TrEMBL record:
GO terms for molecular function: ATP binding; dTMP kinase activity; nucleoside diphosphate kinase activity. PROSITE patterns: THYMIDYLATE_KINASE. It comes from Delphinapterus leucas. The gene is DTYMK. The keyword Magnesium does not apply. Pathway: Pyrimidine metabolism; dTTP biosynthesis. This is dTMP kinase.
Amino acid sequence: MAGRRGALIVLEGVDRAGKSTQSRKLVDALCAAGHCAELLRFPERSTEIGKLLSSYLEKKSEVEDHSVHLLFSANRWEHVLPHGWLPEAASRSALFLFSPVPAACSPERLPHLGLRDASGRTFRWLCLVPSHRPLIKEKLSQGITLVVDRYAFSGVAFTSAKENFSLDWCKQPDVGLPKPDLVVFLQLQLAEAAARGEFGRERYESSPFQQRALQCFQQLLGDSSLPWKTVDASRSIEDVHREIRVLSEGAIRAAAHRPLGQLWT
């Protein structure tokens, strides 16, 4: 039916909570039921920004904490912004992404998003690099439901789990992203998550850090303006899947004729 849009469904949780497994199963189930559905995972590691993030997460490179937070956000924005633009400063190299530029730069002349750090420097996202990837808004407007394995909430929780980062500061780069129609939080005891395969392989996979990230997630879960649903991820894969599928079917029906919102606005 004309006018129907797809739903934006996000799965969140601590590392090894089962997000990837459940995201894949949900897409398969929705497609089998006749829905148009696709999977998207963040960080999306195939882009130039994504490759840098992959190297960082695999502990092959080091990036300053403020900068890497902005890189994670840029990786999301590059799948949202109109074709022909990416949030980048004067270089394709992400080492120069978000380089400080004068705050007096005219917003009329250069599209940008601004973010001020603790020292008062203003970072602007200058749109200079062409993009040819399918975009979130385009897919949703075509009636395709997107199931997203991690979104801005992980970015905020994991950076604010570090020292000297406030939740509010961490949200700023992602303000205005497409607002999810459903955010499923997979609740799992950290001891159980740590016992699952390959825990500890990537940078943030340590129990103390995951505990701090979980506390930040709990703060985000308190935002009643967002459609959070908590699902007990300690159950069998099939039991968890069935609950997520029911929630997702409801979100798809509700989103069909509702305008797409903007996150944290």
